[in-house]
Design goal:
Shape: globular
Distance between the termini: 18 Å
CATH class: Alpha Beta
Number of domains: 1
Structural class: alpha/beta
Largest sheet: 8 strands, parallel, barrel
Number of strands: 8
Length: 223
């Protein structure tokens, strides 16, 4: 399994400097990761650094709380696209979801999808705050609103991806949407487990450790 092509090489810390982002981009090129995932202020920098490579640029929107106004999310997404983003990872409005306002949650997602057109939209559910039924509902809302992916976590909540959350997401929309597992994925064994469950993308800041340990395991088992 070529793990590198599943990985969104991620750096979203508040303290990330332009130099850190350039390093992230060069690592992504070296290890042939699918994408880098960065905050919106760094999209232009990342796009420029990756322009002669196959690595995509994913930008987070409404991050990490999802509680921004729809207009703010749309504006941020439009600027990301203008700066060269290929994909948008937006946080859904968790409070409105928990208030059982599916129409408003769907409108929020649809507004961003409408703003970015054919580019890939991943909707971050932040599953650590949701019940199993809320995860199911969030998946269906994201599907109805035109999303391309549902994603487990920001990595900034109280927990990251779990087997249970991923299983619910795959069962609920795995035949129509792609799934991204993120948050707390630090090793090849965990990454492979999620991929085998049906995940199409892994969001992680430990991509290098994951692919190098995976290669080491492969080499050790090649006689």
């Amino acid at each position: 399994m070529n793990l590198s092509r599943f990985i969104d090489h991620t750096l979203l810390k508040a303290t990330a400097t332009p130099q850190d982002i350039l390093k992230l981009c060069n690592e992504a090129k070296e290890y042939n990761f699918y994408a880098v995932c960065v905050n919106s202020c760094y999209v232009f920098l990342a796009t420029n650094e990756l322009k002669n490579s196959d690595v995509k640029v994913a930008a987070v929107v409404g991050f990490p709380l999802g509680a921004n106004s729809s207009q703010a999310k749309v504006c941020e997404a439009e600027q990301c696209v203008k700066d060269g983003a290929d994909e948008i990872d937006m946080v859904l409005n968790i409070g409105l979801l928990k208030a059982n306002s599916p129409k408003l949650v769907a409108e929020d997602i649809a507004a961003v999808k409408n703003a970015i057109g054919s580019r890939t939209l991943k909707v971050i559910l932040e599953t650590c705050y949701l019940t199993d039924d809320e995860i199911r509902m969030a998946c269906q809302i994201a599907k109805q609103a035109g999303a391309d992916f549902v994603k487990t976590s920001t990595g900034f909540g109280t927990g990251g991806a779990t087997e249970l959350a991923v299983k619910i997401m795959v069962d609920e929309v795995g035949d129509t949407l792609k799934i991204k597992a993120s948050g707390g994925i630090k090793d090849a064994k965990t990454a492979k487990k999620y991929i085998e469950m049906g995940v199409s993308r892994i969001g992680t800041s430990a991509g290098i450790a994951i692919v190098t340990s995976s290669k080491k395991d492969t080499d050790e088992h090649t006689y």
